[in-house]
Design a protein that fits this description.
The chain has seven helices and 14 strands. The chain is an alpha+beta fold and 275 residues long. The protein folds into two domains: 148 residues, Fructose-1,6-Bisphosphatase, subunit A, domain 1 (Fructose-1,6-Bisphosphatase, Chain A, domain 1); 107 residues, D-Maltodextrin-Binding Protein, domain 2 (3-Layer(aba) Sandwich), CATH 3.40.190.80. The strands form three sheets. Strands 3-4-5-6-7-8-9 form a seven-stranded mixed beta sheet, with helices on both faces. Strands 11-10-12-14-13 form a five-stranded mixed beta sheet, with helices on both faces. Helix 4 links the parallel strand 10 and strand 11.
Length: 275
């Protein structure tokens, strides 16, 4: 995708964003029916390979969004954590990337820091996306050509020139390794269970830096990716590149998010920490 998207794509992205936000909020209402703040969920809980939980609420939200997508984005392929992947999506120009509940463990335990994440990608890059935290009443959204917003108000990543003293979220061992590689003092914030929520906290200035370990998938990050981009930040891999989507594998290596001024040093420190 070029640095100057065509006007038609900008118009389509703006229209898509309105639909994505409405869908995320309605999906959030579906999940909230089984969420109990501070208590175990009402939903049925099962476990996938790797002991990862999945609830009846995850599956209900997935079905809700899939039904919406069939009407709202009939030309788009589908990639969701809770749907078996279909390689036919690789032939599609458009892709909806969905995490019905990002932070299922938090949802199960009554922690409100879980999200519904949706991105609409065109030719491998998200052009509209939303990360909605229903139990917190927070909706982060962005589309090409528009500012990133939180509940409709524009947001911007914090302007910071150096990593030293930066507020960071991510796995504690990875934070320690990156700090050592960068030779910087980093201020580790309490763990945020939803990766999508961790990333959009960078977009809003609530964090300076966010890291993702090697177990992230496209559905965890795609909605946040466009929010970061439109907020003056970005999500990079260790080679210092933005991510392309709709690849054969949805799994990602370690990733870093920060304002653009910090990213070169951060990506270099992340790469060094993994060797």
């Amino acid at each position: 995708m070029t640095d100057s998207p065509p006007d038609d794509l900008l118009r389509r992205a703006a229209a898509a964003l309105a639909s994505l936000v409405a869908a995320a909020r309605s999906a959030g209402d579906v999940a909230l029916a089984d969420f109990r703040p501070g208590e175990t969920t009402r939903a049925q809980v099962a476990y996938k390979s790797g002991n990862s939980p999945v609830t009846s609420a995850d599956l209900a939200v997935d079905a809700h969004l899939k039904a919406w997508a069939a009407t709202a984005f009939p030309a788009a392929a589908w990639l969701s954590e809770e749907t078996a992947d279909d390689s036919a999506r690789l032939q599609s120009e458009e892709l909806l990337i969905v995490d019905p509940i990002d932070g299922t463990r938090a949802f199960v335990s009554g922690d409100p820091r879980w999200t519904v994440s949706i991105a609409w990608a065109v030719n491998g890059r998200p052009v509209a996306g939303v990360v909605h935290a229903p139990a917190l009443g927070e909706t982060y959204a962005a589309a090409l050509g528009q500012p990133a917003t939180l509940n409709g108000a524009p947001i911007r990543a914090a302007s910071r020139a150096t990593l030293d003293g930066a507020r960071i979220g991510g796995p504690k061992p990875l934070i320690a390794a990156v700090a050592a590689a960068a030779g910087a003092q980093l201020v580790a914030e309490p763990r945020i269970p939803s990766l999508a929520y961790r990333l959009v906290k960078v977009a809003s200035g609530g964090l300076d830096v966010a890291l993702a370990g090697e177990n992230a998938h496209d559905w965890d990050i795609a909605g946040a990716d466009i929010v970061l981009t439109q907020a003056g930040a970005a999500l990079w891999d260790v080679s210092g590149h933005k991510l392309n989507y709709n690849l054969a594998s949805a799994r990602r290596p370690a990733l870093a998010a920060a304002a653009l001024a910090l990213l070169p040093d951060l990506a270099a420190a992340l790469a060094a920490s993994l060797h």
